[in-house]
Amino acid sequence: MRAWGETVLLQIEEVSIDMSGNYKGIAQKILPNADVTVDRFHVKKIVHS
Predict the structure, then answer these.
(1) What is the structure's pLDDT at 20?
(2) Which of 11, 24, 37, 47 maximizes the CB count within 10 A of its CB?
(3) What is the per-residue pLDDT for 47?
(4) Cα(7)–Cα(33) distance, rounded to whole angstroms?
(5) Strand 35-38, strand 14-17: pairing
(6) CA gap 19, 16 in Å, rounded
(7) CA–CA distance, 45 with 38 (Å, rounded to integer)
(8) In angstroms, what CA-CA distances link 32 with 14, 35, 40, 41?
């Protein structure tokens, strides 16, 4: 993603991730202007387990 360049990365407003612990920190570091949300599939999987 860093190859996209800072100009592009700063324009991203939202990113969807799975529930792996490392993704949120990485997304927040690389995409500082983006809201991080957990994708629906993983939330439903936990709710219905």
Answers:
(1) 75
(2) 24
(3) 84
(4) 11
(5) parallel
(6) 10
(7) 12
(8) 10, 8, 22, 24
Backbone region of residue 10 per phi and psi (left: phi > 0; alpha: psi in -120 to 50; beta: other values): alpha
pLDDT tens for residues 2-13?
Answer: 999 999 999 999
Give one DSSP letter per residue of 1-49, joined into a string.
-GGG-HHHHTT--EEEE-S-HHHHHHHHHH-TTPEEEE-HHHHHHHHT-
Q: Which amino acid is at 21?
A: G
Give the alpha-carbon dihedral of 30, 33, 39, 40, to 10 degrees. 180
